[in-house]
């Protein structure tokens, strides 16, 4: 059995850890509140712009005039090269939050490569960058300080290279993967086809013209709408992922605090047993000494 001093040092160490994890939980809770507000404000706009672009893509798909329509609106069922854009955290201590995204990306890579499709990775977040770099997997693009502090302009700058490669026919499809916020206790992996624009949200109604814009301006307007769609979806993915990260870290730190308390209780019991054993030993030695003097 460990001596009293060793046990006391362990108890002090675990209590210090408990204070740290409790403080980290409170910090994550406060950050989550702010990030959730930002996420909720952006969600309605993201939903509306997705619906608008999906509606346009659905109308374009009926025309099938690829010579006059942006590639972003032409569905491709046989892509040869795919860009996977994924978001992870810059920091750890958030349970399985980062690994859930990394596993999903790894699974997609395997599935696409099994079909003979070339996959390129573009990472936002240090944890994802570090993991795939350690695995020896090349990253087409990487940024390590964006997911922890999302900014619209920086998000647009990051995704710009992806869009340019798609428009220049270097890639045929762009997929975005991130761990999003579902509620205070749950995060949800989200995998979306960013380009070509998905038809999933489209509810096309039979109206007179395909688009209510002048023919001379249609390409410019569509490109502008597409850029806004891509930029904002990247920005929203970063915000949603950050909210989920704070939620996951809050849960992880709450569990760590609970475990630390249980460890302190266990060590306290061990300390009391060792103390009682030491007292008993001393009493026996005293009594034995008294008996020996008789």
UniProtKB/TrEMBL annotation:
Residues 243-277 form a coiled coil. Pfam families: ATP-synt. Produces ATP from ADP in the presence of a proton gradient across the membrane. The gamma chain is believed to be important in regulating ATPase activity and the flow of protons through the CF(0) complex. InterPro entries: ATP_synth_F1_ATPase_gsu (IPR035968), ATP_synth_F1_gsu (IPR000131). It is a peripheral membrane protein. Belongs to the ATPase gamma chain family. The lineage of its organism: Bacteria, Pseudomonadati, Campylobacterota, Epsilonproteobacteria, Campylobacterales. Gene3D superfamilies: 3.40.1380.10, ATP synthase, gamma subunit, helix hairpin domain. It is found in: Cell membrane; Membrane. GO terms for cellular component: plasma membrane; proton-transporting ATP synthase complex. F-type ATPases have 2 components, CF(1) - the catalytic core - and CF(0) - the membrane proton channel. CF(1) has five subunits: alpha(3), beta(3), gamma(1), delta(1), epsilon(1). CF(0) has three main subunits: a, b and c. This is ATP synthase gamma chain. GO terms for biological process: proton motive force-driven plasma membrane ATP synthesis. Keywords: ATP synthesis, Cell inner membrane, Cell membrane, CF(1), Coiled coil, Hydrogen ion transport, Ion transport, Membrane, Transport. CDD domains: F1-ATPase_gamma. GO terms for molecular function: ATP binding; proton-transporting ATP synthase activity, rotational mechanism. It comes from the Bacteria. The gene is atpG.
